[in-house]
Design brief:
The protein is about 35% helix and about 20% strand. The protein has about 200 residues and is of the alpha+beta class. It has one domain: Glutaredoxin. The strands form two sheets. The chain has a seven-stranded mixed beta sheet. A two-stranded antiparallel ribbon has the order 6-9. The two termini are about 35 Å apart.
């Protein structure tokens, strides 16, 4: 009887834990529309914004990023160059910080504001509370890029093929995709492997 009670208790504990564990979707498929487009997030400007608010005339660039990842720091110049190129091609830009497990540390809201000021960000940088948007996108790394045109996702993955050194990159996936979206042409390479730090979700 005692063993049966213990077994039932264990099953209940597992069930409760599973009920509160967030569901992380597989990486968003090419062609899919923007998920959680109206989900409001706190921007470094002090305003709450949604992806639908940021989307430009020709589309939207979403980059999952943070303050702390060494790979993000190696990519900062490329992130800003890509953002400028996106704006030039009438594509909205938003950086999303989903590192909820580090929110009381170097990925706090105040730390994000300071980091963005140092970097000179002129685009939205938002707090993804409980990694909700990252879960919807199936985003796993920082930086992890998702580019949409007016129909759906046209590119996902890395900025280019050399995370360590931009000068040695031979394939500029994201910038090529942005130009294609801006000129109404098909995206040549629509997927690559995102290389970077894991997104620090609460359950980790």
């Amino acid at each position: 009887m005692k063993k049966s009670i213990q077994l039932v208790a264990a099953v209940i504990i597992i069930a409760v834990a599973s009920a509160f564990k967030p569901v992380i979707n597989p990486e968003l498929e090419i062609g899919k529309t923007i998920p959680s487009a109206t989900y409001k997030m706190m921007d470094i400007s002090g305003k709450e914004v949604a992806l639908s608010d940021v989307k430009g005339e020709n589309g939207l660039l979403v980059i999952f990023s943070c303050n702390t990842c060494p790979y993000v720091k190696l990519s900062e110049s490329r992130i800003k160059e890509s953002a400028a190129l996106a704006k030039k091609n009438k594509v909205g830009v938003i950086l999303v910080n989903s590192n909820e497990a580090q929110r009381s540390d170097d990925d706090s809201y105040d730390a994000m504001k300071k980091y963005a000021a140092v970097q000179g960000y002129d685009f939205s940088y938002v707090v993804d509370k409980n990694s909700q948007l990252a879960n919807a996108f199936g985003a796993t790394r920082t930086p992890h890029c998702f580019l949409f045109d007016n129909k759906g996702l046209v590119y996902r993955g890395a900025i280019d093929d050399n995370i360590k050194d931009a000068k040695d990159a031979k394939e500029h996936y994201l910038q090529d995709a942005i130009i294609a979206v801006g000129t109404g042409k098909p995206v040549k390479t629509n997927s690559s492997k995102s290389v970077g730090c894991s997104i620090k979700r609460i359950e980790e």
